[in-house]
Structures are given as C-alpha cells and as structure tokens.
Design brief:
This protein is α/β, with parallel strands linked by helices and 615 residues long. The protein is built from 19 helices and 23 strands.
Length: 615
C-alpha cells in the first residue's frame, strides 16, 4: 500500500493500514514536514526507533553523520527511511512519475492520494494509472462533482489498458472520497440530542442513541440491538483499555447478550432505527430549504400584530353598525369599509350612533395607511436582503452555534439543515467558501473573530443548545469552547481538533472539569481514516460512529467468498467484539434465523480489527 499526503490524514491512514490491517505501507510526505505529525499510535514507536538508531550509530562511530536517522538523499526525493514497524517513509516535494515509481506504485495493490490540494491528487492519479493500470486508486477530493467525473475517467482508462489481461490480479477501481463528507455526519450528529450517532446509506437510515438497558439486557423498542457498552468504573468484559493505552477502561464494542445482561445499568449505545430514508428526493428538499422566503419572514412580528389589531377594529365597527342600524351584516361590513377608505357620503341626518361609527371608521382608516406603507417597505426590504447574510433573530433559542465555514464547516452546516436543526454560524473571513451556502439556506451568520468579546453573545450562545467548533485552528476552537463554558457551564460542546492525541487530552480535561455537561472532541483524520483504509482494501465503508475515543464502522459486504458469512444464519454470523450483521440489501426485516446466501449483500457493524479479519 502506498499513501501520499501532506497532513495528519496521511499518517493516520498509514497507521490504520499497518496496525489494524497488517499491510506493508510506503508513506510519501513532503520533506521537512512541519504541519503534520505522526499520530500518537506511531509516534512513540518512531521516537523509540530514533533513539535506537542514535545508540547504534554512536556504537559504530557514525554519530557525527547525518543524525543517525537512516535517511539518504535520493534523486528527486528528500530521502527514504525504514521504521522498525515495517513502514517505509519517502520524502518528496512533488509527486512526479519518478517519485511514484520509487514508492513502488508499479507493484502496489493500492494507492491513496490524500493531499489537501485537489489538483495535486488528480495529477498524481493520472500518472499512477498510467504506471499501473490494475492499481486500486483512492483519491481525496473536496469537489464532489469533479470527483465523479475523475472516477469515471480513471476507471474507463483502467478498463481499456488492462482489458486483455487475465493474470488474476486485483481488479482496478477508483474511489473518490472527501474527509469533509466522511466526518461531517459524525460532527453534526454529536451536536444534536437524540441523534448523536447517525449513518446514512442509499436506502437505510441507521441512528444510534445512548440508553441504559434493563436488568435482562434488553432495551425498549422492537428490533433494537446493542452496539456498544460505554466505559464504566468496573472491569471491562473485553479486557480492553481506554483510548490510546491510557489505562482507563474503554468501551466494549458489539457485546453479546450475556455481556449486556452482566452490565445491567451500564450506559449503552443501541441501534434505534433501521428504516427507509427519504433518498435523494428528501435530500434535495433539504438542500432547498429557505430558497423562497416564507410569508412570516416578510413582515415583523410587531407589524403582524398591528395588522391583526386593525382587522379586529374593522370587525368590531361592522358588528356595532349592524346592532345600531339593524341592516344586514354584510351590508354593515360593506358600509364600514366604505367609511374606512373615505368613499361613503357623510352620514348627515343619520342617527347619532351611525355618525359616531362613521367617524371611528375614518380614524381607523387613517391608522391603516402607515401600517400598509410599513408592510410594503418591509416586504421590499426582505426581498432585497434575501441574498444577504441574515442576523440572528431576537428570541432565538435551542439552536446550534457553528464556528467556522470552511470545507468541514460547510458540510456540517448542510447536514444540520438536512436534519432541520436551527443553526447560527460564526465566521471571521468574509470570503469564506461556506458563506454562499449559508446565504442560500438563509442561515443567520455573525461575521467576527470568535476570540473577541461579544461575538459569541451575538450568536445567542447563552440560549444555544450546543456549540460546534470546526475552525481550522485548534487553539481557536479550544478558546471558544472554554469561553462558552464560562457563559453556560452545561452547554453541549463539540470540538474539531487536528491532532488526535491533543483531542484526547482536551476531551478528558473538559470531561473532568464539567462532568454534568456533554463534551465531544473529534479529529477529522481519526473519523475519516477508516473509510479511506476500507476503500484501499476494496471495501465500501458507509460510515463511522464514534464511541468515546473508539470508532465503530458500518460497511457493505458481499456475502460471497466470506466463510464467516456465507451459509450461516444472521445469528450465527455474529461475532462478539468483531462484527454484527444489521441488514440485508433488498429486505426490510431480517430475522435471526435467516441464512445468508452467496448473492446477498449485507450491512455490517464492525470494529476496525473485525473488519480487517472479515476480509
């Protein structure tokens, strides 16, 4: 496996392939990389390897050479190093044909191009496809429409180049993924109560919530299954430690019924719903929310009450005229309108009551003129500002405050609006890419630096339901969350943090400081890496549900060729702590005694290692 990237996703993906799936990995990174560090799972090994190299070099008298890191200059590359864990690291400024050839693309089974620049990934993909037509390509692209065309182009090129070959090698394929699209559902769902964990496929909506099972190990509701048991102070049935070897007892993923019964009263993540989703039509409807302003947004609340008051006065005057004169009610209402608009003749010689009512109708008519003028001006102003950014309305509450409208924030905003969640955005850059989306969805936006006083107050943070900080700066996200917690100690907060071990440390600290409040820290690379790794191995990872600091994967798997699935019932195919069959494509309900056949395609929930063992 070859992984090329310039940020934390490349290191996380390489660690995922090497540590979980046991693959040989060549990692190609820019030279003298300062913006990204290896993830915590590999950093301790790298430090130990560097120390070992220094000791060996000193022993053989090479300590004054190149630093003892085993790196040598190599043509167009910055150097090559081999780590003790089997990973080969190649430094290169550009992904040229020579660099890809040196990385072993011609012999590789899969290549992941996860640079943050779409053009760099596309250019390298075209070169790699020419070097190895049978190569499985995984590209990280933000532009989804362009990604579809590139995927079709590269697959067609591979089919033409290797159509006559029948060497039994791996079938060429191209998969275009976006870390923003992969992580956005988890980030958005973490900020919403009751839908903290959501995975959406083409025909299924899987929603998981935290509940406490009853004493017999069952949860309320038909067709539900327990996906995970959350951390407890007592021993974990799996014997697994907490996140990243912290020594804390971690969650138990995919427990069996006996483990759930023994953990009575322990919080669990259960599958709440497996039902048909709205599909593309509902998604399109969600994207079009707010394109046409609703009638209530044309007029202010004060103006609507003024109009209602005048209508009430007109009705009261018509009823009074009917009582005083005894004419037909419709005739009384008609005469009242004539008096209101000063069209009727003066009531000379009429009874005193009729004259008084005519004067009152004329007075109401005078009051109606400024109200109608205000209504016209407000309507024109609303249509004129329909393309402008909205401000948070007065009295807004129960909303989600979203910090940052970059590529991650834009995807999260779209996801929240598809779930019909009220959102207020905060963005410091007036040219941010997500402002057009916010304008189209008519989402209120506060332009300003979240670290400045008064910006979060303008976003109504004191009445918000949750704060979702997804800017590109970890310190900005952390500062905003700490300030918001000083205003609302019980506020639900979700942080997007770049470094995974930093996210772990922040999560533990905030959880200890505010035990009664909900805190979530999320690393985008941590959430996206399983999907990229699955695509490199030829698997379709539909989504990932974070369970504390671990991840539960949802994947579509062909039953054919899997002895753990084919010929077994759904109940027999379940392996505790590894995988569970949730649904069979084309079937609304799947009983536990249903036997999986060769042509079936199933949706499974699996741990990282379980998905690797499933093959």
């Amino acid at each position: 496996m070859v992984v090329c990237g310039d940020d934390g996703l490349a290191h996380r993906l390489a660690a995922e392939l090497r540590g979980v799936h046991g693959e040989q990995v060549t990692l190609v990174v820019p030279p003298n990389e300062r913006t990204a560090r290896p993830p915590v799972v590999g950093r301790a090994r790298a430090a130990s390897a560097a120390l070992l190299d220094r000791v060996v070099n000193a022993a053989v008298g090479l300590g004054g050479g190149n630093g003892g890191n085993g790196t040598a200059a190599h043509g167009g590359t910055g150097g090559t190093a081999h780590r003790p864990d089997g990973e080969r690291v190649l430094e290169a400024a550009d992904l040229t044909e020579a660099v890809l050839a040196e990385a072993g693309v011609e012999r590789a089974a899969a290549l992941a191009l996860v640079h943050d620049d779409d053009e760099t990934n596309i250019r390298a993909a075209l070169t790699a496809r020419r070097l190895n037509p049978r190569l499985r390509l995984v590209l990280r692209l933000y532009n989804r429409r362009l990604g579809q065309h590139i995927e079709e182009l590269l697959d067609q090129t591979a089919a033409l180049a290797s159509g006559e070959r029948a060497d039994g090698g791996p079938e060429a394929s191209t998969t275009v993924l976006s870390d923003a699209d992969t992580a956005a559902p988890a980030l958005a769902a973490s900020a919403v109560a009751g839908t903290t964990k959501v995975v959406q496929t083409d025909s299924l909506l899987l929603r998981a919530v935290e509940r406490v099972p009853s004493g017999d190990g069952r949860v309320a509701g038909p067709g539900l299954c327990t996906l995970a048991l959350l951390s407890a102070t007592g021993p974990d049935p799996s014997g697994a430690d907490g996140p990243e070897g912290s020594g804390e007892q971690g969650p138990r993923l995919l427990p069996d019924d006996e483990e759930v019964r023994q953990a009575a009263g322990r919080a669990a993540v259960v599958l709440e719903q497996v039902s048909s989703s709205g599909g593309p039509a509902s998604a399109a409807a969600g994207r079009g929310v707010g394109v046409v302003p609703p009638l209530t947004s044309l007029f202010s609340r004060r103006l609507r009450w003024s109009l209602a008051g005048i209508v009430g006065c007109v009705v009261a005057l018509a009823v009074a005229l009917w009582v005083v004169t005894g004419i037909h009610p419709l005739g009384a209402f008609y005469l009242t309108l004539l008096d209101l608009f000063a069209i009727d003749d003066p009531a000379l010689g009429a009874p005193l009551g009729r004259q008084i009512l005519q004067l009152l109708s004329g007075l109401v008519g005078l009051l109606l003129l400024p109200v109608l003028l205000a209504a016209v001006l407000e309507a024109l102003g609303t249509f004129r500002s329909a393309s402008a950014l909205r401000k948070p309305p007065r009295g807004l509450g129960g909303h989600v405050v979203l910090l940052g409208l970059g590529k991650i924030g834009t995807r999260v905003l779209t996801r929240l609006r598809e779930l019909h969640i009220p959102v207020v955005c905060v963005e410091s850059d007036p040219e941010a890419r997500g402002l057009a989306t916010a304008r189209r969805l008519r989402v209120p936006v506060v332009l300003g630096d979240v670290t400045q006083e008064g910006v979060l107050e303008a976003a109504k943070i004191h009445r918000a339901h949750a704060l979702l900080a997804v800017t590109s700066a970890d310190t900005t996200n952390l500062e905003a969350v700490l300030y918001a917690r000083s205003v609302r100690p019980d506020l639900r907060v979700v942080l997007r943090l770049y470094d995974d071990d930093f996210a772990t440390a922040v999560y533990r600290t905030l959880r200890a400081a505010h035990p009664q409040a909900s805190t979530r820290s999320r690393s985008v690379s941590h959430l996206a890496a399983p999907a990229f790794a699955g695509a490199m191995l030829g698997r379709q990872v539909l989504g990932a549900i974070p369970v504390e600091r671990r991840v539960l994967l949802f994947a579509a798997v062909e039953v054919a060729g899997h002895p753990e699935l084919e010929g077994r019932s759904v109940g027999e195919a379940f392996r505790a702590g590894a995988w569970r069959v949730l649904a069979v494509e084309g079937r609304a309900e799947v009983p536990g005694d249903y036997v999986l056949r060769k042509g079936d395609r199933v949706v499974v929930a699996a741990t990282r290692r379980g998905l690797a063992e499933l093959g």
